[in-house]
Amino acid sequence: MDDFLQIGKTWIGYGLEISQDLFSILFLILLVCIPILYITDITQSKHAVRRNFPVIGRFRYFFEHVGEFFRQYFFSMDREEMPFNRAQRSWVYRAAKDISNTIAFGSSRDISKVGTVLFANCPYPTLGEDAAPLAKQTIGPECRHPFTTKSVFNISGMSYGAISKPAILALAEGAKKSGCWMNTGEGGLSKYHLQSGCDIVFQIGTAKYGVRDLISGKLSESKLREVSLHNQVRMFEIKLSQGGKPGKGGILPGDKVTKEVADIRGVRMGEDSISPNRHPDISSDEDLLDMIAFIREITGKPVGFKCVIGSEDWLDRLFQLITVRGKSTAPDFITVDSADGGTGAAPMPLLDDMGLPLKESLPMLVNKLNQYDLYERVNVIASGKLVTPADVAWALCLGAEFVSSARGFMFSLGCIQALQCNKNTCPTGIATHDKGLQRGLNPHLKSLRVANYVKNIVHEVGMIAHSCGVNHPRELNRRHARVVQENGLSVPLNILYPSEGYESVVERRNLGARPWSGRQDDNEDINLENTVVNIPLKQLSEKADSSL
Length: 548
Ligand SMILES: Cc1cc2nc3c(=O)[nH]c(=O)nc-3n(C[C@H](O)[C@H](O)[C@H](O)COP(=O)(O)O)c2cc1C
Prior knowledge:
Elements: H1 2-43, H2 48-52, H3 59-74, H4 86-97, E1 117-119, E2 137-139, E3 147-149, E4 153-155, H5 165-178, E5 181-183, H6 191-194, E6 199-204, H7 221-228, E7 233-239, E8 251-252, H8 259-265, E9 273-274, H9 285-299, E10 303-307, H10 312-325, E11 333-337, H11 348-353, H12 358-371, E12 379-383, H13 389-398, E13 402-405, H14 407-412, H15 435-438, H16 443-467, E14 481-484, E15 490-492, H17 493-496, H18 502-508, H19 537-546
Parallel strand pairs: 4-13, 5-6, 6-7, 7-10, 10-11, 11-12, 12-13
Antiparallel strand pairs: 1-14, 2-3, 8-9, 14-15
């Protein structure tokens, strides 16, 4: 025992001596370095801060860098961070881990803030046994290969290149497990998208990566046909624009253009992969409808487009043209992306200042489709910061048929909002091709999180629907949500976004099974014979007595 203690003491002694030596060396290094840095700083004229505050001015860069990571943990309040606050992120993390998402004591949300969405609960919510599962929805019923799906919440486009191989694998496997679809983004189709067997929406970006004729640079009919031969590829989406950068094509920095990414895209490895800011062969509404018809003819599958809306004039022109050419020429779906949508990389003026946010563009699109009697024909997919059940339910209330999310799914994979997607340094391995950083992202384990996220979103959107008194989420309509105004009072969405043709939207959504489920003004249509309100008080008490 004594020997053992003696050996222990000796080792501790060595340890102390070594740390003393190391400390002395470090001290000497600092003694030499600090004066050198000091002289360098005061003699240079490039950086004012370093000249005025030699040596300590250098910490600015370090703090700026680590501040991005630590602000969210230490300094920001639950609801104040952008683009996504802690409350939103935490909800997704917990949903993805499938752990309890209940909150104690009370809401930390300020519900009197202008713009807050409040759902209109009904006095007698839908009972579990009356709840209906989400019905199947068919997109492009007249196509040779229509797409029928139950999924309401789907994975928005993020290209292989912008995100990593393990991220694509995890999303694809999660999509298969949960039954949602995955959009390829504009980077083409890789074997990683196909591996799990999930439903895929193939996006055709402005550079037509994956379906481009390498000589002419135009859309290649044979490549398009080849892609469409994959049964998993269910629909084709022409990308006109995305919320993060309307008017600018994809930007993939050279650091992220690996050999494999370059081969799939048909570009050079290590060089920035920049797409044109619009499809060179689509410069008018006529061209757009021609392109839709062409792709639909070649592939036999539903074809739509994704865009950010800047004004309703364009929608009028496009829908008038469709009316002239015939409803069958309409796109099978339109994905409307919010101006505050995400991106792998974008210039600040386009990211911050261009396009309309979803709260304006979604009701505008639905109203216009309805006005031109196209709402039945064209499915609306909404995207842009719709990451929690309330966000999704709000979009359904406004008339979206489907919702898709990119960053919500990134959070489900463990994204910490480090804002590094435009570099090759994403600390969670999602948006980097650095093998060392990808090590932490196990595709199979993360796929469970993706599937859990979808499951919990759908479950809680259902909960909101039931609380509003309807049987399933697609029965939600504009009367079921209200928005707080400047005077502190809320106004229902149907008043805020009135539409001449709104009633047909309402009818289509099969509303008003109950008088209190949001269709109050139609009460007179309801036969009151058998309802309690119509029974005289005396008769009512007799009824009660007899049933005792
Ligand atoms: C890393 C990243 C890559 C993206 N790549 C594409 C793309 O290739 N094509 C596209 O149409 N949108 C792309 N987007 C935009 C998303 O598909 C989506 O429209 C937008 O982020 C809004 O959804 P969100 O708020 O749920 O992220 C990308 C977004 C992110 C964050």
